[in-house]
Amino acid sequence: MIAFWLLAPVMVVAALGVLFVRKAVHAALLLAVVMIGLAVLYAALEAPFLFAVQIVVYTGAIMMLFLFVLMLVGVDASDSVVETIRGQRVLAVVVGGAFAALVGVLLGQVTLGTAVGLEGANEGGNIEGLADVLFSRYVLAFEATAALLVTAALGAMVLAHRERLTPRETQADRARARVRLYGEGGEHLGPKAAPGVYARHNAVDTPALLPDGTPAESSVPSIISARGTARSAPAYRDVDAVVGQLEAADHDRADGDPRRRRSGDTQATGDADRARADGAADGARDGAPGGGDA
Amino acid sequence: MIATLPLAAEGGHHSVPLVDPGAADGVLGLVWLVIALPLAGAVVLLVGGRRTDRWGHWLGTATVAASFALSVAMLVALLGREEGDRQVGRHLWDWVSVGDYRVGMDLLYDPLSALFLLLITGVSTLIHVYSIGYMAHDARRRRFFGYLNLFVAAMLLLVLAADYLGVFLGWEGVGLASYLLIGFWQHKPSAAAAAKKAFVINRVGDIGMSLAIMLMFVTFGTTAFAGVSAAAGEAPESTMTAIGLLLLLGACGKSAQVPLQAWLLDAMEGPTPVSALIHAATMVTAGVYLVTRSNFVFENAPVAQTAVVVVACVTLLWGAVIGCAKDDIKKVLAGSTMSQIGYMMLAAGLGPAGYAFAIFHLLTHGFFKANMFLGAGSVMHGTGDDVDMRHYGALRRAMPVTFLTFAMGYLAIIGFPGFSGFWSKDKIVEAAIGENYLVGAAALVGAGVTAFYMTRLMLMTFFGEARWEPGVHPHESPKVMTVPLLVLAALSVLGGLLLLGDWIVDWLTPVVGPVEHHELPVPVWAITLLVTAVVAVGVAVAVLLVGRRPVPREAPRDVSFATRAARADLYGDAINHGLVVAPGGALVRGLVATDRHGVDGVVEGGSGLVGALSDVLRRAQNGYVRTYALSVLGGAVIVVLAMVAVSW
Amino acid sequence: MDDLTPYLVLSAILFSIGAVGVLVRRNAIVVFMCVELMLNASNLALVVFAKQHGNLEGQVAAFFVMVVAAAEVVVGLAIIMTIFRSRRSASVDDASLLKY
């Protein structure tokens, strides 16, 4: 009974935790606690085989399945513990409490008396005893569970299987599509800029800088921009900083109008913009037959 | 008032002859053929369709003529038998066999049936011949003859059946034929409406007839003439009175007696041969036949007999008054028919004193009224189907044969001495006076009025100046039409010969018993003189009022109330409408409203309630699996609660 | 080691917690976990009854429950995966089209 009194509060708390924690992973872990506790109780209740099965099958296999699925599904808004159905939570607690109270009353009404104990039944070994019962009296049910398991496995495979409806897209297909897009709309033919190129931070969440110093938003993975965690590319500031350093160096060497140089710089940037636009137009003109060839 | 007088008081339980037919042999065994021939004709003509168009009318005429020949042969055979042996029965097959109730398809051939057979087949043959000419230009002539044959077959079944159920079959058959023939020109809405009216009013009478048959079955366990006549004396008088009154109701419907008289005048919408055959000579006399045949019922039901007399008196005056005011020649004749059938019913209601004379008048009326209807048809034929007498006049020169034959019928109906109507009507008036002065007075007045309106008809049609429609050139009808007129005219003149040596009275004795002669306060010749004098007065009044002044082509509007009432059929339709149609309509509207708002309301309200309830309850199906799980857990709680409660 | 009633009370409490969890949690996977919790609670009761009565039938029944639970989890999780794949949601409240 010592094991029971030690474990029971832990199990109840863990079970309540399943109710209240927000994240499903935590709930799974708490459930594992309850299951392991149960396994220990099985051992205490002279059921060594079930003890092993509980650990192996439940805690080992089933809980792992849960965790795998959680991994696949990912974090979800349904983790929120805010109730959406009016009165559901209150009613659930009331009815559940009533159920527990009633079962408790029912247990209070009966007197179990002294347990017979399993010393006699487990005389030839618990597993042998179980096998004796399982393969004599319950053999038909046992066979039926075999059928059930095969069916369940098949069912799960059917449900999880995803039929490919279109032929697999090959690299040649993708190249052809890209050239076609270039031919139709003048879309950039080459690879997109990788994040961090020319930027000061060579990180995946920092947009690359175009030759004119403007950040290229398309270089950042869309999931990062959607999440709003993309860093801003301090393009001009960096350029200004570099220019400032250079000017400071110039200032040291010779007199010059830094303001004038800056305006010339700006001019140069506008020229670059224009040149890029022209290039795109030329590309559209030149690329059309090329796209057709491809 | 009449009921309080000692009417037929001593008539009660005298020797009513029983119906007890012997076996048929020889030519009498062929009695079924009389019905079968026209029936076969009807089947061939109606089923054969257009293939029979070319020769259909000849077949229709031939079957009826053959029936007539057979009837004559059978009459001869019957005459050859002894007087007590003149009832012949023929069992054809078992018709209805339910428990103890057995109805055979039995035919009864006796002196009464024999006379009817001759009348029906004879007049039918003549009218068939006439119709060949009259309907020559009708595209549906073959169908017309099919219907006529059907009618003849049904009418023959009516008078030959030995069982009330068989009579009822024929009764409905003639009703059907009458309906089909009144509405023969169904493209005219008036004809269709008239046919419907006749059918509906006849249903009222038929209900009486069928109730009478049911009552007979309940009382006697049989509906055969033989069984009923044998047991009629033992039945309680109240039952017999009920049966008699119900039979009278049936007779009123079929014979157009008050209060079921309204259909007859409208029935003139049918072709004129139909009016002559069905609505003058034969079918409308079925009521008289029924009363006469059921003498064993009425002899045991004095109250019903009195009712017959009252109905007859009212009808004979009613019809005569209508006849005075109508300008439509066929409607005048129809009113006259009502009136004359009233005479027959009167005689039949007088009991053994009158049965024979009822049948006698029926026969003579069949002759002269058929004659006059066919004459009217001939007139219409010659004037372009115009029926308004105000458009006739001076036709005696244009249509001499028609005029002469019509005149014979005219003299017969007003009772000109020596003509058939003189003998038959005189006998009825005599019997009526012998029974009760009031009834006698009614009959006498009726005779005078009859003389008036028939003279008016004659004067307006054949005398005076010509008032023809422009473009109408009256001409004599073809031979095929005039020959039947000649034959019928001859019969109208000579019909009185049946009374020679009281032959018809003796002939009918096996059926209706011997005639009872009442002590009359004045000698018989005085009554005859009186009747003749009244008729002469009627003729004189008509000559003075109609013959001496020009007849306006439009009916005058500023006329007395009596004339207006007579023109409106004495408000028969209004009475029907007020007493039956309007309350019936109100009742039906009430029932419809009850059904729509009450019954339908309950049903639709119930469904609406269920719908509304489910609209609320279906909110429980909110699609959230957790809500369903909650209800599952709630159920588990209830189960555990039950366990706790049980083990407490 | 004489009175096993506390075990049954624990079983009842765990079962009720599982039931309430099914009712209040919206994530289908957590709901599934709560169902497993209920099954485990009943298993505990079965094992307790086996000891109480001194035969192994209760343990065999618990064994069968485990087998069936394993099959159920496999199919159930596959269904959840399929639903998630098409609806991008693992909430049991989102699959609520079958209603009035």
Summarize the structure.
With 294 residues, chain A is mainly alpha-helical. In chain A, 66% of the residues lie in helices and 1% in strands.
- The total beta strand count of chain A reads 2
Query: Structural class of chain A, please?
Result: mainly alpha
Rg of chain B: 30 Å
Helix content of chain A: 55-70%
The largest inter-chain interface, given as chain pair and residues per side, is: A-C, 87 and 75 residues
Helix content of chain B: 55-70%
How many separate helices of chain B?
25
* Oligomeric state as shown: heterotrimer
Give the overall shape of chain A, derived from the CA principal axes. Answer: elongated
Largest sheet properties of chain B: 3 strands, mixed
Shape category of chain B: globular
What number is the mean pLDDT of chain A? 79
Which structural class should the secondary elements of chain B be placed in?
A: mainly alpha
Describe the overall structure.
The complex is a heterotrimer of chains A (294), B (648) and C (100). Helix content of chain A is 66%, strand content 1%. With 294 residues, chain A is mostly helical. Chain A has a two-stranded antiparallel ribbon. Chain A is elongated and about 105 Å long. With 648 residues, chain B is mostly helical. Chain B has helices at 31-48, 56-79, 111-134, 141-160, 164-182, 189-220, 225-231, 237-255, 262-266, 272-281, 286-293, 295-298, 302-325, 329-349, 355-382, 395-398, 400-414, 420-435, 437-462, 479-494, 503-512, 524-547, 561-567, 572-617, 625-647, and strands spanning 22-23, 88-98, 101-109. In chain B, helix 5 runs antiparallel to helix 10. The longest helix of chain B is centred in the last third of the chain and has 46 residues, at 572-617. Chain B is globular, with a radius of gyration of 30 Å. Chain B starts with 21 loop residues before the first strand and ends with a helix. Chains A and C meet through helix 1, helix 2, helix 3, helix 4 and helix 5 of A and helix 1, helix 2 and helix 3 of C.
